[in-house]
Amino acid sequence: MIHPRHLIFAAVLVAAAAPIQAAARPAKACPATTVFNTELKVLTGYRVITGPDGDSLVEPMKIEAKQIPLLKTGKLLGMFELPAAPKRASEIVVGPPDVDLPMHAAPYAEMFILLGGSVTFKTAKFSAEMKPGSVLLFEDVDAKIGHGGRTGPCGYISLSIAP
């Protein structure tokens, strides 16, 4: 059985080879989009849970960096503490541009941190443009309709963590 992580790496390798085959076409210019830098103090986004009506419900979420001394340097290290769980798994996900994402319940609880690109995130009652640094905490594993959306014109890169 092929592990999904291997499929992601295979897709990245195929995507990396594509410009060699399509050299005659002008390349789409996608700007550097990351907001992750040494000044980052807070991650903002949404928590997605199953509401009382059985549909996905969205709540604003903010995770502030905890300031911790960096060894004996006199400098501070910003650390974002994510929700704890006995088993943690993470993946870097590279999504293709301009793809409609069908509505679905989360297959498992997952924290999605957008590192680059963009995604339009939707539920039956909510829509938001997600930019680099945005966070979604998916807990709507038993939702009737769930969530979906559309990837942006430059695709996206995200860190996916099972909290």
Sum this structure up briefly.
The protein is mostly beta strands. It has a single domain (33-66, 75-162), classed as Jelly Rolls (Sandwich). The protein contains 1 helix and 10 strands; from the N terminus they run αββββββββββ.
Could you name the key traits of this structure?
single chain, 163 residues, mainly beta, Jelly Rolls, eight-stranded mixed sheet, two-stranded antiparallel sheet, 10 strands, 48% strand, globular
3D architecture notes:
The structure is a single chain. With 163 residues, this protein is mostly beta strands. The chain has one helix and ten strands. The chain has one helix at 4-21, and strands at 42-50, 56-64, 66-69, 76-79, 89-95, 100-104, 110-123, 126-130, 134-139, 147-162. Strand 3 and strand 4 (76-79) form a beta hairpin. It starts with a helix and ends with a strand. The model is unreliable at 1-23 (pLDDT under 50).
